[in-house]
Design a protein that fits this description.
The protein is of the alpha/beta class. It has a single domain (17-156, 223-305), classed as 2-enoyl-CoA Hydratase, Chain A, domain 1. Helices cover 42% and strands 16% of the residues. It is built from eleven helices and nine strands. Strands 1, 2, 3, 4, 5, 6, 7, 8 and 9 form a nine-stranded mixed β-sheet that branches. Helix 2 (72-83) runs parallel beside helix 3 (102-116). The model is unreliable at 26-31, 35-44, 63-67 and 288-309 (pLDDT under 50).
Length: 309
C-alpha cells in the first residue's frame, strides 16, 4: 500500500508541476516563431532563415498529445507564417520521417511548391530518415541535403489489410455484414478479396504512384524515366540517392542552413527562426522518448512507410 501511495503521490506532483510550467509558459510566450538555435550565431533581429520540422509519420493531424509529431495542417500553418514574415528570406524544412498518408504528404508538397513560386527558396535537410512520403515532401524543395547515411527513397504506395478469417474460425466467431453495395467491404479482414476487387485496388495504387512520380519529376526538374529505375519501393542511403540525383548535396543540417543563407545573400550569422517549443512540450516529448524509441527499426526499414489510409 505504501508503495502504491508513493507512486500516486509522484504522479500527482508531476501533474501539478506540469500545470505550473504550462501556466508560466503561457504567460511568457511572445511570438509563435522565435530565434533560437544554440549551435548557430544569430543576430538579434533582421532578415534570416526559417526552420520547419517534420518529425515522425506524416498525417493530417497530430497523433496524440504525447507526440512530437505535427499534423500536415500545423506544418502548413507554420510554412504560411514564415512565407508571410518579411524577415524570412529562405526556409529550411528539416525532415525526419518514414512517410505517412498520401493526402497529407501531397498537401505539404503543394504548399512548398506554392512558396517556391513566390521566389522564397526552400531547402530540405534530411535527418535519420526521409523516405516515401518524407521524400515526397523533400522533392518539392529547391535543394535537398542529406547525410551520407540518411535512409531515403522508398518511392511507392502500398495498402495492407490483414486476413483474420482463420483466427475467427479458431475461436468460433462469425461476422454478420450488412452493406449497401457489393464492394463496400472491399478491404474487409473477414472475407477474401475477389479478383475484380484486387484489380480495382491495383489500378488505384498505380494511379497514385504515377502522381507521386510526376510530382517528383516536377519538383526535381527531372524526367519520369530517370526516376523510375529507383521508384520500385527500394530504400537508399543519402550517398546512393545523390548518385541517382534524388538529392543535391551530402550535408548536415547546419550546412543546409548556411547554404540557404548563401542562396539569398545573407551572412553566415544571420538569424535563424523556428517555432518556439514550450517547456511543457519539451517535458512531454522527453517522457515519450523515455518510453518509445524515436525511430523504431520497423519504421526505418518497412516499405509500407508511404501508406494509403
Amino acid at each position: 500500500m505504501d508503495r502504491n501511495r508513493k507512486i500516486l503521490l509522484s504522479i500527482l506532483l508531476f501533474l501539478v508541476f506540469s500545470i505550473i510550467v504550462a501556466l508560466i509558459d503561457m504567460g511568457t510566450k511572445e511570438n509563435k516563431f522565435s530565434k533560437g538555435m544554440p549551435s548557430f550565431r544569430i543576430m538579434q533581429t533582421g532578415p534570416g532563415v526559417g526552420v520547419v520540422n517534420i518529425e515522425g509519420e506524416i498525417r493530417t493531424a497530430s497523433s496524440s498529445g504525447f507526440s512530437a509529431n505535427l499534423g500536415s495542417d500545423a506544418i502548413i500553418e507554420q510554412l504560411s507564417e514564415l512565407e508571410t514574415n518579411p524577415n524570412i528570406r529562405a526556409i529550411v524544412v528539416r525532415i525526419n520521417s518514414p512517410g505517412g498518408s498520401v493526402a497529407a504528404s501531397q498537401e505539404i508538397y503543394e504548399k512548398i511548391m506554392s512558396i517556391r513560386k513566390r521566389n522564397i527558396p526552400v531547402f530540405a535537410s534530411m535527418a535519420d530518415v526521409a523516405a516515401s512520403g518524407g521524400y515526397y515532401v523533400a522533392s518539392a524543395c529547391n535543394k535537398i541535403y542529406a547525410n551520407a547515411g540518411t535512409i531515403t527513397g522508398s518511392i511507392g504506395v502500398i495498402m495492407i489489410t490483414p486476413d483474420i478469417q482463420k483466427l475467427l474460425e479458431k475461436f468460433g466467431i462469425s461476422v454478420n455484414v450488412i452493406k449497401s453495395g457489393k464492394h463496400k467491404d472491399i478491404l474487409s479482414s473477414v472475407r477474401n478479396i475477389t479478383p475484380q476487387e484486387k484489380q480495382m485496388i491495383q489500378e488505384m495504387i498505380d494511379s497514385i504512384h504515377q502522381k507521386f512520380l510526376k510530382d517528383i519529376a516536377v519538383g526535381r526538374n527531372m524526367s519520369i524515366s530517370d526516376i523510375e529505375p529507383v521508384a520500385d519501393g527500394r530504400i537508399l542511403t543519402g550517398q546512393a540517392a545523390l548518385e541517382h540525383k534524388l538529392i543535391d548535396h551530402i550535408g548536415t543540417f547546419e550546412e543546409t542552413i548556411l547554404a540557404a543563407k548563401q542562396e539569398v545573400g545573407l551572412p553566415a550569422n544571420a538569424a535563424v527562426y523556428r517555432k518556439r517549443v514550450s517547456a511543457i512540450e519539451q517535458i512531454l516529448m522527453s517522457m515519450k522518448s523515455g518510453f518509445v524509441p524515436k525511430l523504431r527499426l520497423n519504421e526505418l526499414f518497412k516499405t509500407e512507410s508511404y501508406i494509403l489510409q
